[in-house]
Amino acid sequence: xxxxxxxxxxxxxxFSRHLSVLSQLGCDTQAVRRPEELKGLQGLVIPGxxxxxxxxxxxxxxxxxxxxxxxxxxxALMGTCAGAILLSREISGSSQPRLGILDTEIRRNAYGRQxxxxxxxxxxxxLGERPFRxxxxxxxxxxxxxxxxxxxxxxxxxxxxxxxxxxxxxTFHPELTDDYRIHRYFLSNLSELPSAx
Length: 197
Prior knowledge:
The protein is α/β, with parallel strands linked by helices. It contains five helices and twelve strands.
């Protein structure tokens, strides 16, 4: 069985850590900065960083429409923190560039500034009984989800991990832990659709 080929958008954030985790899970990995680097990918991770800057870079390098088209063709996407913002259709109070693939509304910096970043245990039933240690850094918050969006985890009542079709988005940073269950879950859904939890 061939290893899945997974890309990581490599403009900002800890993309090297995502690449390392995916490589350890047996993936053929690719740092993505240009449209031609999307070729042959089964999945693409959009990491954290500054969502406005990443959106502008996606437009400047011709990746915005290419990623949308690839997603329509079956490419699975996973967005973490800023990546979740870019995947959302609506960004509260902002007209910044975004991919807009998920039927979600999200609010940036919902928990406060950098100094207000925190870690917390997040219960994710799809991952089993053991909580996942969520690292929330200037984290956004989902404030609305459409009918096709499956909420996989909540924290303080708000969705923090959602899925729509093959696409996954979370408001925390799974790559900053030694727990690879979320990356593994993303890979397990490359050819499957989720059922409601």
